[in-house]
Design brief:
This protein is 42% helix and 16% strand. By secondary structure, the chain is an alpha/beta fold. Strand 3, helix 3 and strand 4 form a beta-alpha-beta unit.
């Protein structure tokens, strides 16, 4: 089992990069460290900083929003970071975000997220392969651009920088079409709401994508699936559960519109459809306190490990889902990093 360290710095009003935690994760043999973005801290700049102070740990985004940058720009970020890091260390996890951010923050049309992702990955591959000037005629993205507003002078170009080998592209998704797309064109998948029955739920969609897979990505045997692992060492389990409810309520209730909310859908897929709808209903009506109260204890507890070290060690096998090849630890506490590295090593071996 591979371990990643998730840095939840994207949802804070001040940027603090927990470098000591990252260095400890590298010391304990963690596979990767992961950043994210919403509408504040970007996901890529911290990785460039971490490239300078680490030596082996891979640098990943979970996720970078595709509406924020053109695929060529994201490929440039990946090549630059990987060159700074010494090569074969960068993983670009892509996600579509939601229409509120896409149209409200980035001023881009929501369009067809599935085709956006397909075109985006294809163009990034062409940039990174550097075999010829990049041209692409996709459903959502065309290079060179010849649409409305074009003056017809776009030119197909090839990257000046020669990319290092080993840059990977992963896709984050929960819905069937983009999950199948991840298996078809990406090197790995970051599932939204995998859970103990994740393979039963998502396996058919992944298999559909694998059947269409070509040689543009890593071999299927090397395809990675990384789930999230939230851990808190504490004697007050209820308090640990309760303090995670506001963020859960905000995502399930308000991170998206009534029609398009992937976090609500993820909770529903994991067996809590009525609670997910109630949380969203209360949040959108302005009853945020009621939305928080509607978050089930069981949902939080089944998604993490809370309690004394003995309880965490005992319950850890419940978090290892069929098909998963890695787990992203959502804690930067140094004691927790050491404990989880020890538990995973004892349970299945730390890759």
């Amino acid at each position: 089992m591979k371990l990643g360290l998730g840095l939840d710095i994207y949802n804070k009003s001040r940027l603090h990069l927990p470098t000591e935690a990252v260095l400890n994760a590298e010391k304990y043999g963690f596979h990767s460290v992961w950043t994210a973005e919403a509408y504040g801290v970007d996901a890529l700049s911290p990785l460039a900083y971490l490239a300078a102070i680490t030596h082996r740990i891979k640098l990943g985004t979970a996720i970078v929003q595709v509406a924020a940058r053109t695929p060529s720009a994201t490929a440039m970020h990946a090549m630059t970071i990987d060159a700074l890091a010494g090569g074969n260390r960068t993983i670009i996890g892509l996600g579509v975000s939601g229409p509120q951010i896409v149209e409200g923050w980035y001023g881009r049309p929501w369009g067809s997220p599935h085709h956006w992702l397909r075109d985006y990955v294809a163009i990034m591959r062409k940039v990174l392969e550097r075999q010829s000037p990049v041209e692409h005629a996709g459903e959502e993205i065309q290079l060179p651009f010849t649409g409305q507003g074009s003056i017809g002078q776009g030119k197909a170009l090839k990257s000046i920088l020669r990319p290092t080998e080993g840059i990977q592209i992963w896709i984050a998704s929960g819905a069937p079409m983009n999950t199948a797309l991840a298996a078809e064109v990406a090197d790995g998948w970051l599932p939204m709401g995998y859970g103990p029955d994740g393979w039963k739920t998502h396996g058919p969609n992944l298999e559909k994508g694998f059947r269409c897979r070509s040689g543009i990505a890593v071999p299927r045997s090397d395809f990675q699936i990384f789930t999230n692992l939230t851990v808190e060492i504490t004697d007050d389990i209820q308090a640990a559960i309760d303090k995670r409810k506001p963020l859960t309520a905000m995502y399930v209730g308000g991170m998206g519109s009534k029609e398009h909310n992937f976090h609500r859908d993820s909770m529903a897929r994991r067996g809590f459809p009525e609670q997910a709808n109630l949380i969203q209903e209360r949040w959108l009506s302005g009853d945020k306190e009621g939305a928080v109260k509607a978050v089930p204890d069981e949902y939080i507890d089944m998604g993490g490990l809370f309690g004394p070290k003995e309880r965490i060690r005992e319950r850890y096998p419940l978090t290892v889902s069929e098909g998963a090849t890695g787990q992203i630890l959502r804690s930067t506490d140094l004691g927790t990093i050491a404990l989880i590295a020890e538990i995973v090593s004892d349970h299945s071996g730390l890759e």
